[in-house]
Amino acid sequence: MKKRRGISTTGVIIAVVITVATAAAVVVILRFDPTGKGGSGLGEQFVYDSEQYRKTDPNLIHYKELKPIETGLKVARGIAVGPDDAVYVAGDRKIVAFDRDGKSIAEIALGDPPQCLAVEADGTIYTGMIDHVEVYSKGGRRIAKWPSVGDDAIITSIALSDSDVFVADSGNSVVLHYDKAGRLVNRIGQVDKERGIPGLLVRKPCIDVAVENGKVLWVTNPGRWRVESYSFDGAPKRHWGRQSQEIEGFCGCCNPTCIAVLPRLRQAQSSHGWLITGEKGLPRVKICDETGCLRSVVAGPEAFAKGTVGLDLTVDSRGRVLVLDPVAKAVRVFVKKDD
Amino acid sequence: MRRLIQFLIVLTVSASVAFAAAKLPTWYNLPETTTPAPQSDIFEYIDVAVLAAAMALAAYLALKRRSRRGLLALTIFSLLYFGFWRGGCVCPVGSIQNVTLGLFDSGYVVPATVIAFFALPLLFTLFFGRVFCAAVCPLGAIQDVVLVKPLKVPTWLAHALGLGPYVYLGLAVLMAATGSAFIICRLDPFVGFFRLVPLGKWGQAIIQDGSWPGWDLGGRFNLLALGACVLLVSAFIGRVYCRFVCPYGALLRIMSRFSRWRVSITPDECIQCRLCEDACPFGAINKPTRRKNVSRSEGKGRLAALILLLPVMVAVGGWLGGRVSPALSGRNPTIRLAQRIRDEDAGKVKGTTDAAEVFRESRRPVVELYEEASGIRREFLLGGRLLGAFIALVVMLKMIRFSIRRRRDDYEADRADCLACGRCFAHCPREQARLKRIREGK
Amino acid sequence: MNASGTDIRYRASVACAVVAGAFCVIVCAGLIQNYFHSDVSDPLDSEQFVALKAKLQAYPDDEQLKSEVRRMDLELRREYFRSQAFGVRGGWLLLGGIVVLLVSVGAAVGCRKTISAPAPAGDQELAEVRAGTFARWSVAAMGLVILGGATALTFITPTEGFPTAIKHVEKPPSLVVHFPSDEEIGRNWPRFRGPGGLGISAYTNVPANWNGKTGEGILWKTPVPLPGKNSPVVWGNRIFLTGATKDKRQVYCFDADSGELLWQRDVTNVPGSVAKPPVVMEDTGYAAPTVVADGQRAYAIFANGDLICFDFAGERLWAMNLGLPVNMYGHSTSLAMWRNLLLVKFDQGGEGEGKSEIIALDGLTGREVWSKPRPVPESWSSPIVINAGGRAQIITCGNPWVISYNPADGAELWRAKCLDGDVAPCPIFAGGMVFAVNTVAVLAAIKPDGVGDVTKTHIAWTAIDGLPDICSPVSDGKLLWLMETYGTLTCYDAQTGKTVWEKDLDMEFNASPVLVGEQIYLTGIDGVTIIIEAAREYKEIARTDLGEKVYATPAFMDGRIYIRSEKNLFCISDAKR
Amino acid sequence: MSEQKEQPDLTRRDFIRSGVRGALLAGVGAATGGLLARSRSGDTVWQIDPEKCIACGNCATYCVLKPSAVKCVHAFGLCEYCEKCFGYFDLDAPDVETGAENQLCPTGAIKRRLVREPQYEYKIDEQLCIGCGKCVAGCGQFGMGALFLQVRHDLCINCNECAIAAACPADAFRRVPADKPYLLKKKQ
User: Fold this and answer.
1) A58-336 — its CATH code?
2) C146-156 pLDDT, tens per residue?
């Protein structure tokens, strides 16, 4: 009680300690960020940064985008061009068709969710379900349902020639060659050391097939970052492509995921064997010539939503590149800038 | 925005598609992902049993045995067991939030052990006073063992700061009831310490597979810093967290006020020797009242005025609480997200946040988010009004209490404030006499 | 009291506490220094290292640079682990120090602890009063602080609300296969000629007198936008009709109580729909086939092969084109349903061309469930679905076969060769017997329990009097009536095939007769309806005139008759408006 | 101030007190009883839903423990054993070999081992992993998503409210039954 009058040193020290500690506690509490507003506070080294690859040199982009066609689908899987440049899109449990101006012209109800489709010149539609192919008349009536390819099958693409149907089975890493009646003729792309076929390698179901000039079959080999061509009897012809995040290569662990053959447009331009390829990871669509040399970028990663997986693309007779964007659920239309 | 989202999987291809994995050589055994099991929930039931036993023991030691030494030993045991072994979770203090959320959200299931942790100390307090605070609560224990030189906090200041627990309790209940946050857990100052020495981790590793996980220490710097500050203060101001912050303490105070039995300073009768006057480091000893010539009419007028003022202040508090509710609702993640989205869309803020980007990627309609947010805002409006009214009520009741002069003839431990720590026993000459009798009796 | 002993202990404790305290301070300082030195947990966040890596990007093949990066990486990591180990060791030392400090301070305080003598009590009463006042004021002040803080908070945080909009509720698709019960079907008029396609009304309380000109007995009258020969179909309070011209096809839904046109939908955007109009006769038109409804959806087919499905709300569910029918009058076979299956009898082409077929589609999705080719050329007769011989059967008429199918899988059950010509009247089923008829052929009574070709075994009798070419027969199981287009009504004994009576009504008929209890309603093209007794003798009960041309068979519901005239849809009811 | 006057006063107070005590007892009993009736004894623990996780890095720094109880785990069944693993190699790695200049993980916590050309096994050294999620982002963006973050329950002390959950921008944390404490990615 005596101490009350004089101020002892201990008292002062204790008062200071208490004040400092209280102030420090308040500061610490204010520095708390329980809601994570301030981010993780980790250094740059801990941040995965792929932004630099998500920008494309504008000089490489020779295409411009027109108004997209909204498909109205919840899940958009495959795209194909039919007679009169009509655009067919498979998704949900139906196929929707649009005329060349993007006007809806037809809707066909399907029993199963389709994965891909191809349309013949007479309007007959071949659509791949997970494990089997169904054929629909132009009017939308089912003409045929081919037997299941097998339990492991994941059909991801169909391509047609005059008398053949090529079905890409990503589940078994093989392209199945059928005739128009649904009889299996051949299996293309299986490992064959003698013929120098390394085999198709896929890590996600994304093998795509395309037919060039009714004679050559093009197949993506995403696990090896390349595209391969085969004659219809299964003999390997050519291949090109390499892994690279740069625009010249195929990015990620498994690309390209889709291809289409660029039709020969003008006499002057030799676009024989030119392919349009689409990738995931860094979603981008580009055109390479017969040697695999980049000729043009149709759309760079900035044109698509981040994480876009499952693009499909096709080209119509006017050379418009039609890209099915599964995130926007729309057909993105790209035309050459000078057109 | 320093760090944008780099990474969003759009499941378009893989959805509903079975896909075979890599074809590996046959000799290769696919490694299993190791998945160490969590602590068995048997431990939780053991914890409940230990809690009950510890409180029973504390009640015995404080009320019957009157042993400060025993209580201290129990305090250290509780600190080791509930603090360092269990990591300070779940404690009764935090369980307030679980129980609140359980009462307001029928979809939230409160585990039985948490309910037991919430209810047992309350029930014990209702019968034996705050024996839980005395020697069982690990938060109290850690402050108790570092209490070196208790200073007297002036009573008026202690009373003013005593509002803290009620405000904190109200806020915590509001946040928990609206499902916004468990703020008590977020601001718990001692978890850092409890987790610094990972007794539980060691024990678990040894029990489960006989391994020794190493001498590593855990705990975050900021948590440790907060804990260190609080401990430093509580070296001089006894149990600063318990008295001026702890929301569970507010509940226990209410219970303790009506407890069946309680700690008494003297074992038999008070001889008014005044030796215990300064014995309590927590300022919980009340002196006897002496009323002789104070005019009661003055006090009566004030009391009447305060009682009349009570409903007015409660209404004002409620109104103000409603006004504050939008600010409080900012702690709710949904509200925060909705505000962010709204401001981004209105161009009020630049860039985006991870949460906003995730929301946009989810393609959930914004209107739905806004509606949900508006709903939560309405809950907060109601909750804020109740909170404001509650705080006003507490303030007014406290003021009314100080205007009523109670008659007290002896030195007594305050019913609400007494933590049953038993420090005052030794100060009482009657107790000394009792001890002597016991010694001699033996 | 051992003062000196206590003193020594006290001093020792204090010394110990001071040493422990100093130790703690030093360790603490070291730890803090270490913490800020190692900075969070990022060993590679060294500027030098980052620069080195960036340089390597520029010269990816520089081996020396690579080894430099590796060396530095190793060094940084070693430093990081060293610092971590330091932190752990320091932590333990600090903990030990704190424990020693606490114990020694506790001991020191314990030594000095004396029960101090209480200070002299001053004016206790005054102190008490003052303490109460102080406490009151401090609590009040704290309350004010809270109040002020809260008020300040209201000013600094925005209270802006959230924009609102009307919530769009998407209805979940129903995946359960649902089809109406026989009882539900019986209460409605779901297809051409009512439940089962037999031309028998379930209700007998229908009006017998009306006048289209004066409006007497007419509850409402609503114009139908496009022409069509199809008959009204009624389910609950909805009436379905179709109308079509050469290049336009529509489906209508009317409200049965008010006659209001609830919705009308253009049939466009059908995949493969042929722009070229089909060849039709004026008798038939472009919308001859009658709609079928199943309580949730209505299905319509048109002369060009467009087949479409709407739900009752008018939402289009699916559509397809079956191909332009090769059919000289125009396609006019009405649709039928069995459970959830929509049955399309699609007879076309000439004899032996093999173009005809019968198709069953899943009503919900339009997916084909089965289809069977039919060995008949084009025909117009609509199929019926019956339960006979312990099984469900689809009965179809063609030239020359009457064929029965299993509706579940399309398997043929039996066939009988008895018809000829352009078959238009529908078959009926009465008294356990299937009756098929066509002009130029016969009226045949066929027992429906056979298998395979039953021509020789199951035809009970045939007759040739008064054979119709458009109107379908009607029978109560005992008697059977045939209505010939030019008004000759023939009554047969259904069991024996004997002609009971014959009556020339001197009117033209396209609509088929309908049996309503003990009476038969006969509606002629000129709009006159004759009501006769369904008895072994001809007896006319009433004759009433709509005043407009009628080609379609009326629909009979509870207390009401719905008649489609050339331009309008009438609801006839005794109940006055 | 006689004894007689005191006596009834005290008993009245005691009476009120025991009344209130009874009321409080009933209140606590009702609340806990109601909750107990609903509570199922099944224990729950915190876990990250890998489908929601965006690998933002908060797990590394918001855990009350240091190092964090969240670590990267590897679902080997999903892994394609790529030679160029995007969880192992830096995006702009100059080469496809194990040199420090190529590695993505800032703490060097991923170990690479040849299985058979061109297949490589990648294993997480959990002693080194701090749960920053950098490899998770790489594998998710370009690979199979076989690397993902999980709460390791030998480390986690199962806070009442997980501090990381409160700070998770993707709302990826949730309580799961303790007998199924992991949400591992599986072959779909």
Assistant:
1) 2.120.10.30
2) 999 999 988 88
